[in-house]
Specification:
With 491 residues, the protein is an alpha+beta fold. It folds into three domains: 33-286, 2-Layer Sandwich (BirA Bifunctional Protein, domain 2); 303-398, Anticodon-binding domain (Rossmann fold, 3-Layer(aba) Sandwich); 418-488, 2-Layer Sandwich (Translation Initiation Factor IF3), CATH 3.30.110. The chain is 35% helix and 26% strand. The protein has helices at residues 27-37, 54-73, 87-90, 94-100, 126-136, 181-201, 248-253, 277-286, 314-330, 345-354, 365-369, 388-416, 424-433, 446-456; strands at residues 41-43, 50-52, 77-78, 84-86, 105-110, 113-121, 145-154, 168-178, 207-211, 223-230, 236-246, 256-258, 264-266, 268-275, 303-307, 335-337, 359-363, 372-377, 383-387, 418-420, 437-442, 459-464, 483-488. An eleven-stranded mixed sheet has the order 3-7-8-14-11-10-9-22-23-21-20, with helices on both faces. Helix 2 packs across helix 6 (181-201). The protein is globular.
Length: 491
């Protein structure tokens, strides 16, 4: 007898979904529950550190694969630089020191000996990379330098949350050198666009791109740009940043080149980065009360096949699903055949839904008799009966539709939770009760920006490209408005 709807697992097992707190009850606990139940990570014995479990690291591997391809297409190469940075190098740049000093982890002993100079574990790599560039750059012929590295960094955070803010996290950091300011600015904006396109195309996360304020820009940068995403609880998350460093670091670290006019000049630099916090964004933008919902392009497993076995027809079904799995693999579809005998089909449904696999395929004796399979979408729960000989042709279209539908759903949510206005009291009420993005005319004053943060816990996420203030006065202080700013409470 087929067991298509049985949700019981082996003796002593619980239903996964019962152990996930509903989003509407406690969003923060829902987030942790999903991460732990989907086995994305586990807590380390050191506060703020975590281990990536295979399911979590597979998501980061997809980020690496898809982003690295884009980096290479734009002319960048990968390299690797030391984990430890001498204290003297960091101290060369005062603003940089001030920006990172509270979060730096120090190494003062090597084996049994006290180090002559303390070393810091990289919180970012500008200082050590600039030291190398000062030796590598001699002539205009050496430019541009277009280098990226994939690595981990350590920032000793006081308040941590898995993927979003951890003391050690994985990321990529690009570091480039150019002849002119125009080339550096073009690079900075190009890489911001790479992030925007990647997040929207692959992760189905719509983002708002713009420039950071002076208060929010990277320590030592000339200008910082970011892409900002809206989570399903109404909070914003900075998903990627790109910095035009100007000549500031070049002058500190003496990175000069002989130009074509025989004049010694300082290079113009950029840096840009995207980290594992994008996995947190993926969870919070698409997940639901049953667990993860993964966009097909990001999903390590795009399709899971669950056979509906019976004593009479078990071997016949297994032979059919094995053949089906092989066909889908030939189509370059990432498929998993779950033929574990100790779990019921219903329990498997529950597990793979919790893990976010985009499509489930069910095959039982009755399906074989009708020469069909049943497909179930993770995002909508929609079921469809498809002829077996048509599945390989139809499945790629189904996966692409799911990808597009997830992006549209996230975009619709962002649009519904983006407001414009010039009423400060209304803004304060929205930030307290509804959150979301609020775009308002702003004066550009640092003190005004700080007061808004004190009043509402909201910060300026970015000054969005292409937007101008719709009123001539700042909505907070009443002075002349110079910018249209996007405000939100953020992670």
């Amino acid at each position: 007898m087929e067991q298509r709807n049985n949700l019981d697992g082996p003796a002593g097992e619980k239903e996964f979904v019962r152990e996930i707190t509903p989003k509407s009850v406690d969003f923060s606990q829902w987030y942790i529950d999903v991460i732990l139940k989907a086995q994305l990570m586990d807590y380390a014995p050191i506060k703020g550190f975590m281990a990536f479990r295979p399911a979590g690291f597979a998501l980061w591997e997809k980020v690496q694969e898809l982003l690295d391809k884009r980096f290479k297409e734009t002319g960048h190469q990968n390299a690797y630089f030391p984990l430890f940075i001498p204290q003297s190098l960091l101290q060369k740049e005062a603003e940089h020191v001030e920006g990172f000093a509270p979060e730096v982890a120090w190494v003062t002993r090597g084996g049994s000996e006290i180090l002559a100079e303390p070393l810091l574990v990289r919180p970012t790599s500008e200082a050590i990379i600039c030291d190398f560039y000062s030796r590598w750059v001699q002539s205009w012929r050496d430019l541009p330098i277009l280098i990226n590295q994939w690595c981990s960094v350590v920032r000793w955070e006081k308040s941590t949350r898995p993927f979003l803010r951890t003391s050690e996290f994985l990321w990529q950091e690009g570091h480039t050198c150019h002849r002119t300011e125009e080339e550096a600015e073009a690079e900075t904006l190009q890489m911001l666009e790479v992030y925007r396109e990647f997040l929207e195309t692959e992760m189905a996360i719509p983002v708002l791109a713009g420039r950071k304020t002076e208060r929010e820009k990277f320590a030592g940068a000339l200008r910082t740009y970011s892409v900002e995403a809206l989570m399903s609880d109404g909070r914003a998350l900075q998903a990627g940043t790109s910095h035009n460093l100007g000549q500031h670091f070049a002058k500190v670290f003496d990175i000069k080149f002989l130009d074509q006019d025989d004049q010694l000049k300082y290079v113009w630099q950029t840096s840009w980065g995207l980290s594992t916090r994008t996995i947190g964004a993926l969870i919070m933008v698409h997940g639901d009360d049953r667990g993860l919902v993964l966009p097909p392009r990001m999903a390590p497993v795009q399709v899971v096949i669950v056979p509906i076995l019976s004593k009479k027809d078990g071997e016949r079904v297994l032979e059919a699903v094995r053949s089906l799995a092989d066909q889908l693999k030939e189509q370059k579809i990432r498929v998993k055949l779950d033929d574990r005998e100790e779990y019921s089909p219903g329990w498997k449904y529950n597990e793979w839904e919790m893990r976010g696999v985009p499509v489930r395929i069910e095959v039982g004796p009755r399906d074989l008799d009708k020469d069909q399979v049943v497909t179930v979408r993770r995002d909508s729960g929609e079921k469809e009966f498809i002829a077996r000989n048509e599945l390989a042709a139809q499945l790629p279209n189904l996966l692409e539709k799911i990808q597009n539908d997830l992006l549209k759903k996230a975009l619709d949510f962002r649009e519904a939770n983006t407001r414009k206005g010039s009423d400060y009291e209304e803004f304060k009420k929205i930030m307290e009760e509804q959150r979301g993005f609020f775009i308002a005319p702003w004066c550009g004053d640092d003190h005004c920006e700080e007061q808004i943060k004190i009043d509402t816990k909201a910060t300026i996420r970015c000054l969005p490209f292409g937007l101008k203030p719709e009123q001539d006065h700042c909505f907070a202080c009443g002075k002349q408005a110079t910018e249209a700013a996007c405000f939100a409470r953020a992670y």
